[in-house]
Amino acid sequence: MISTGAQGSFQILRTKRNSRAATSLRYIERVNLAIDHVMRYLGGPVRLEAVANAAGLSPFHFHRVFQSLVGVTLAEFVKRLRLERALLMMAHAPRSSLTKIAFECGFASSSDFSRCFKQRFGVAPSTFDMNGWRERHGAQLRALSPAKLHLDRLPERLNPDGFKVRIRALPARNVAYIRVRNPYRAGAVANAAARLIIWAERHGRASGQWLGYQWDNPEIASLQDCHYHVAVEAEEFTPQGEIGRFRFPPIVVAQVEIRGGIDTEMRALQWLFGSWLPRSGYVPDDQPCFEAWIGRPFAHGMEHFELHAQLPVKRG
User: What's this model's pTM, rounded to 2 decimal places?
Assistant: First the structure.
């Protein structure tokens, strides 16, 4: 016989499990809504904001969620669908001009279509051996259908690194920052961090929490247009020169501790977005991911990092 207290605990556990299962289904539904939107507007511009809106997710983090669950970026996914649609048109409407096919499949120009086609199939569409393709890939060609695209389950819940999430409520905070343009240049971020450390020590701010964050997504924006912010929490001060000031609102973050190289951080983010988040009951909030350094930035050099990855979240 189960005691009343045990029954209550069992009911709470079952409720949590049901809630997580419902969240998983909602994420599958969100991705499929995004795919449906892409298919509906494949012949025209497919805009990130519109796809994210169809999925009911913030555009700020949708791209990473989509890539983690589908396995490719949104741009790669759209290009693949357009090429597959073009291939079907070439097979079943051989008299259509390649220019017409290019525009009907959403390519910006016939040259854009030809370039993408050659990257995928190795030859230009004008010299593509359709009969040979039919013989080799007939079943695959016939299987190209929107019905095959939908997500039916979430990625496996693999976590060989043993990452653990801690949910934290952070108060509003001011930061002093240096904005680094094209942060992928060698030494650009480390040099900016060194300059900010000098400023922070001079003004008695060096003991605050050190942060790194980026509003741009390098998988969408060109690297030259991306900006990374090296920052330290600081009370009110007057911004001057390259030292800027920004105030973040109160947020809730899902925090993962990372101790290792950049590959460890990439695996942590992949697991956080692709496995933990869809089963968590949360969705990303419209704020950047933070690198919250344990100690000062690059205290262990450029090959080993000790920090907390913080993903802003809210209840879904």
Answer: 0.79
